Amino acid sequence: MAKACADHRLITHQLKELIATSSVSSTDPSWDQGNLPVIERLADFAQAAGFSTEIQIVDADASKANLIATKGSGIGGLVLAGHSDTVPFDEGRWQTNPLQVHEQDQRFYGLGTSDMKGFFPLAFAAAAQFDSSSLNAPLTLIATADEESTMNGAKALLKSQIHQADGVIIGEPTNLKPIRMHKGMLMSRIVVRGHSGHSSNPALGNNAIDGMHRLITGLMALRLELQAEQNLAFEVPYTTLNLGHIHGGDSPNRICAHSELQFDLRIIPGLKTDLITAKIQSLCQQESEFSGLNVLWEPLMDPVPPFEEGADSALVRLAESLTDAKAASALFATEAGFFKALGAQAIVMGPGSIDLAHQPNEYLAFDQINPCITLLSNAIKHYCL
After folding, report:
1. For residue 190, which phi and psi values (nearest 5 degrees)?
2. Do residues 189 and 326 both lie within one domain?
3. Tell me: the pLDDT tens digits for 19-52?
4. Helix 119-127 / helix 8-20 crossing angle, nearest 10 deg
5. What are the catalytic residues?
6. Distance of alpha carbon 267 from its chain centroid, rounded?
7. What pairing do the DSSP bridges indicate for beta strands 294-299 and 307-308?
8. Which of 179, 201, 17, 199 is nearest to 112 (CA)?
9. Are strands 258-267 and 184-193 parallel, antiparallel or unpaired?
10. What are the Peptidase M20 dimerisation domain coordinates in residue numbering (predicted)?
């Protein structure tokens, strides 16, 4: 396969621009930011690499957007995709400014260098090797909004009229190893409302913590039930249920009138998210009928679907041949399931390490730059020439 060399100065310039343009997405409004300035910079870079560009607004106040950049024309082809947002950060735990690229020890340090703004300059470098006139099928680059929070960018793509590609490479950090499956994600909460009263007489109130205790017992039983169905391709081969946050009451001498539990599930491919949520809702209804407490279950965000690409699919076979690595599974969630819903074969494969994601002192190692460009260049040749 052909090997590509990087224009280090151009990559450094583009990466510095992207990292310096903060685009935190969060379900916490105090952190949440728009990503439109990053999308506009990406559009400039894409045009310089020979793409035509479309900015797709995905929220009511026009602060969040996707970029759809296309080179060449026709049907099928290849999509290189990634998200343009980052997670919140604690600047005090960083050794350098997280919003400025710092070069040290053959690494680029900065927020999003690995997860995953660093993918885009490398994708542009690969794409710049091909003139539109040489492409027999389109090459598309997609940058989305809000992957780290609501997935609204990916959901907007499902409603758009983008063409159906033959293959999609989502450039999340996998150390350039192909990932063909990952778990889905459901984050939700249960709120229990009772009636307060003096603790000396339980009959004066209805204790929300008592009800939450019974609900947690039911969730723990559900956890064991879910563990019975396993997929040995995963390091943790079953669906997990994590109790992540709980609060209730205000004083030991008052009957608790309000309690809230937040939890998440990481769901293996093949299990139906709606069947799991139906069981949780049934637990809540049973508790309400038993105790008279007001019990509400609601998702904290729309579920992220599990993802699985067939082991014998053309894209998986190509990725394995280009990387000399067997396609594996990941515990983290991505937008791959949304691209599968658009009808394309999909794989997760990009530079950087997921172990560095969402951590202080995140970095992209220089030794992944040229191999990534070569990998993407060869994928473009396969699908677009």
Report:
1. -120, 130
2. no
3. 999 999 998 899 999 999 999 999 999 999 999 9
4. 140
5. 85, 147
6. 14
7. unpaired
8. 17
9. antiparallel
10. 181-287
